[in-house]
């Protein structure tokens, strides 16, 4: 069976001193979690976070990764730099990066490959806008994002990575997808992976839901058979809220 994975995407929040406080509060609250617990702080907090989580069950992720090993890419951070800090996961292709920073399915694919090559697990984000959902385009869009995002990756690597289904209209809006909507689209993602890489790979791959998840709605979403975890934005910035999400089955 797939072990659930719940990750906090801090986005552009938390200075190092704020990160220290949050992690300090979080550690005892999540120590008995049955799922994988990941935090994804901004780059500047990663080294400190890596020290602070030592000996705990909290694991570290970054919010992006560059596709090149090194070189003249001012402002970017490479996979081996993150790996050396103890980063185990990298969020790739978040809708905010697609929307504001020109991220495409091609760059998502390149970043995912660089992460895998360095031994970092990509958390590849996909999801439709409200306009696309209302226009009946969700399935087609999400399928294309999965196909292009995973192009050229070996099935054995696909089996180990994480996909996050985050409908854009549910992010930061307080408007969560219903349990059924999230389960249905995640089913589409799993079927797409099955068609490309085989049913064993699709059965092993973990797929999260993200978008206004909180302590109140986590139980219903996590009870759905296709949903293997969550990517949490706003609720990951408060230790109590994030711990209640992580301990949804306590
Ligand atoms: P919210 O939980 O704030 O809606 O954000 C979701 C998200 O974008 C996580 O990556």
Brief descriptors of the model:
TIM Barrel, single chain, 8 strands, 250 residues, 8-stranded parallel beta barrel, alpha/beta, binds 1,3-dihydroxyacetonephosphate
Describe this structure as you would to a colleague.
There is one protein chain. With about 250 residues, this protein is of the alpha/beta class. The protein has one domain (about 5-245): Alpha-Beta Barrel (TIM Barrel). It contains twelve helices and eight strands. Strands 1-2-3-4-5-6-7-8 form an eight-stranded parallel β-barrel, surrounded by five helices. The protein is globular, with a radius of gyration of 17 Å. The two termini are about 20 Å apart. The relative contact order is 0.15. The mean pLDDT is about 95. The site of 1,3-dihydroxyacetonephosphate (13P) has 14 residues, from strand 8.
Portion in strands: 15-25%
Q: Rough shape?
A: globular
Query: CATH homologous superfamily name?
Result: Aldolase class I
Q: Encode the helix/strand succession as letters.
A: EHEHEHEHHEHHHEHHEHEH
What is the tally of helical segments?
12
Residue share in helices? Answer: 40-55%
């Amino acid at each position: 069976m797939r072990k659930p994975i719940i990750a906090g995407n801090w986005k552009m929040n938390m200075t190092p001193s704020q990160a220290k406080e949050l992690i300090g509060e979080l550690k005892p609250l999540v120590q008995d979690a049955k799922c994988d617990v990941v935090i994804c702080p901004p780059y500047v907090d990663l080294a400190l976070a890596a020290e602070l989580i030592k000996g705990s069950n909290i694991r570290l992720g970054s919010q992006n990764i560059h596709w090149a090993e090194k070189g003249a890419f001012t402002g970017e951070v490479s996979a081996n730099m993150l790996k050396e800090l103890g980063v185990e996961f990298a969020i790739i292709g978040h809708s905010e990066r697609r929307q504001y920073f020109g991220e495409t399915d091609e760059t998502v694919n390149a970043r995912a490959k660089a992460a895998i090559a360095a031994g970092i697990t990509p958390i590849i984000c996909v999801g439709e806008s409200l306009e696309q959902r209302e226009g009946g385009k969700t399935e087609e869009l999400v399928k294309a994002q999965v196909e292009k995002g995973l192009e050229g990756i070996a099935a054995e690597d696909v089996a180990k990575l994480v996909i996050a289904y985050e409908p854009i209209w549910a992010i930061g809006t307080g408007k969560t997808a219903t349990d059924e909507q999230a389960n249905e689209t995640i089913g589409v993602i799993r079927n797409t992976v099955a068609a490309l890489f085989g049913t064993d790979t699709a059965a092993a791959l973990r797929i999260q839901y993200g978008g206004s998840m909180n302590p109140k709605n986590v139980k219903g979403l996590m009870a759905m058979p296709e949903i293997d975890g969550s990517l949490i934005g706003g609720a990951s910035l408060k230790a109590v809220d994030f711990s209640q999400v992580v301990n949804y089955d306590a």
